[in-house]
Amino acid sequence: MDLDVVRYVIRRRLEGGLLPQGRMMKVKDTSGGGQMCDACGANITEDQSAMVGATLEGGRRTRHFHALCFRIWDNERHLLLLDRRSV
Ligand SMILES: [Zn+2]
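Above are the sequence and the zinc ion SMILES. Below is the predicted complex in structure-token form.
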């Protein structure tokens, strides 16, 4: 998938409250098992790296991200928080 598209999707989901803005706890680096990526909506296949963890938002449910989507999400949520502070 196009990185700019993924970044855009993640940003929209963060702004719309569909993705958590708080940090993720107990993050584990693992391999995919066909779960849906919370960030981009695509499946994480066995040959891809996955980041699995929980956030306080959304009832501490377990989230699955592609390793790359996780990095983009982590970056975008920080940018979003910086934006809010400067208002
Ligand atoms: Zn993804």
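The longest helix spans residues 67-86.
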